[in-house]
Amino acid sequence: MSNDTFSLLLVPILLLVVIFGFVRISMRVRKYGGSMATTMHAATYEFLSKDNRAAIEQVVEVKANKKMEVQESGKFKK
């Protein structure tokens, strides 16, 4: 196999490996990270009224308690 053919095969394979690595990392971060809704509420918290802040805090606390109960029981959803 000539050097040019080897280069033409190597470059796409390396690109696929790098893309696959980034996809795996992003999926792992998304799986163990917070939800997008929680992130958006945190980013806009300062712009909300007192009533909206109280409502969002209750929702976050309820979600946190449910997650803690699931972790303590050992029954995870798949």
Quickly give the structural class: mainly alpha
Helical stretch count?
Answer: 3
What's the shape? elongated
Task: Please give the share of residues in helix.
Answer: over 70%
Gap between N and C termini: 47 Å
Q: Biggest β-sheet: count, sense, barrel?
A: none
Order of helices and strands: HHH
Number of DSSP E strands: 0
- What is the count of distinct domains? 2
What does the average pLDDT come to?
77
Task: Give a verbal description of the structure.
This protein is mainly alpha-helical. It folds into 2 domains: 1-33; 35-78. The chain is 79% helix and 0% strand. It has helices at residues 3-32, 36-43, 50-73.
Main features:
78 residues
Task: Give the secondary structure arrangement, pairings included.
Blueprint: H1 3-32, H2 36-43, H3 50-73
In brief, what are we looking at here?
The protein folds into two domains: 1-33; 35-78. The protein is 79% helix and 0% strand.
